[in-house]
Write a structure and sequence with these properties.
- The protein is α+β, with helices and mostly antiparallel strands and 457 residues long.
- It is built from 17 helices and 24 strands.
- The strands form six sheets. Strands 3-2-4-1-10-9-11 form a seven-stranded antiparallel beta sheet. A six-stranded antiparallel beta sheet has the order 5-6-7-8-12-13, covered by helices on one side. A five-stranded parallel beta sheet has the order 18-17-21-22-23, sandwiched between helices.
- β21, α13 and β22 form a beta-alpha-beta unit.
- The relative contact order is 0.11.
- Bound molecules: guanosine-5'-monophosphate, iron/sulfur cluster and magnesium ion.
- InterPro entries: GATase_2_dom, Ntn_hydrolases_N, PRTase-like, PRTase_dom, PurF, PurF_N.
- This is Amidophosphoribosyltransferase.
- Catalyzes the formation of phosphoribosylamine from phosphoribosylpyrophosphate (PRPP) and glutamine.
- It catalyses: 5-phospho-beta-D-ribosylamine + L-glutamate + diphosphate = 5-phospho-alpha-D-ribose 1-diphosphate + L-glutamine + H2O.
Length: 457
Amino acid sequence: CGVFAIFGHPEAAHVTYYALYALQHRGQESAGIASIDGGKLYHHRGMGLISEAFHGEEQIRKLKGHAAVGHVRYSTTGSSEIANAQPLVFGFRQGNLALAHNGNLINAQQLHDLLERQGSIFQSTSDTEVVAHLIARSHYDSIVENIRQSMSMVKGAYAFCILTDDKLVALRDPLGLRPMALGRLGDAYVVASETCAFDTVGAEFIRDIEPGEMIVIDANGLQSSFFGGKTRKALCTFEYIYFARPDSDIDGYNVHAIRKKFGKLLAQEHPADADVVIGVPDSSISAAIGYAEESGIPYEIGLIKNKYIGRTFIQPSQELRSLGVRLKLNAVRAIVEGKRVVMVDDSIVRGTTSGRLVKLLRDAGAVEVHVRISSPPVTHPCFYGIDTSTSGELIAATKTIPEICEFIGADSLEFLRLDTLLGAFGESAGENNYCNACFHGQYPTEVYEDTSKYVLE
Ligand code: 5GP
Ligand code: SF4
Ligand code: MG
């Protein structure tokens, strides 16, 4: 998912609306904005892309106030339906709350059961509502304390933006699994999952929000504090590999630059005898350019993506996924015909994309297809908000690299080694700063193996 929030701007909802467009790649199932004006909460949520969820100026203008929070969703807990769209809004004894959450709570089911036994009535099946109930039931006089208290009970990955009647609270889980940054737009503060949202609305990046940091913004300015105790840091490496936009900077590294470096390292580690290097749009272009630059093999555009179809993996079902891939990409015959092609992709998850693309390239006349992947094989499910929650779906969980190579029909297949990938971050950024659990199964939190997306249904 993607979150954005702003405090102290006369056009808060408008700015949020534009910023969400910059975060659209982080979720395409639903979109929403909530704003607060003088103790009154306004909100609009809809299914699909932002352009589908919102229809025209009028709707945005109704979202009054100087503070707003927005969300684009891609579901990792709870199905894709309007009840699960965010921001989640509710009122309780301390006023209004609007919550926008990126990530996945691993103990949502446990907390949900506990809360239900104690009388809570749930309206959605998303893990975010659990947090809403925790906040509503906390008994401090200060809403900020109630939020802090609630966050100490949830485990997993989260970046939250929470709007109250007079405050914006932004917090990032103690491991920093999901990214979140702080910026400034004139006199207003802004918070976003990725810095590309700041560029889009003309805001200035101030800094990343730290793991375990809670930022409270109100009429008196900004206050920072830490919660949850000191742990290791575990930012998701997949944010760099695949998920984030190349023009974003996350925790000190530009995403494009890092991907390009992955590509260079991949070329050193796994060279190929070939005539042309191509990348799988959009997320692998940077790595393919790096591979070409390092290997001296010319970079070409050999695959064209239909821009008007969302990311395949964001479609909820396997049937839709398979359909999406065929609609989505086409080979450029003039480029690949008669050529030995290196096809760089950022990851192999289920293995369906690579297989289809290899076939596409061969059908377009490629004589050899060498697949190079700018990340290690994904062997373990993710419990933190990237949509690979069962190991049954992961091709590398059951097949060796030669078997995957055969499955996708490539002439050769190689993956970037994990230690090489981490080397791209330089000496200061060792294994301990990143989550790499889907590559080796060493999760930075406890996990509940039976967790499925539909646990709360
Ligand atoms: P798959 O191997 O599942 O067919 O898809 C891998 C390709 O789709 C890669 O090009 C990657 O960019 C994208 N992709 C699809 N689903 C996911 C996912 O759940 N996680 C990641 N990291 N990439 C995915
Ligand atoms: Fe990211 Fe993988 Fe960790 Fe999930 S398990 S947070 S995808 S690195
Ligand atoms: Mg891709």
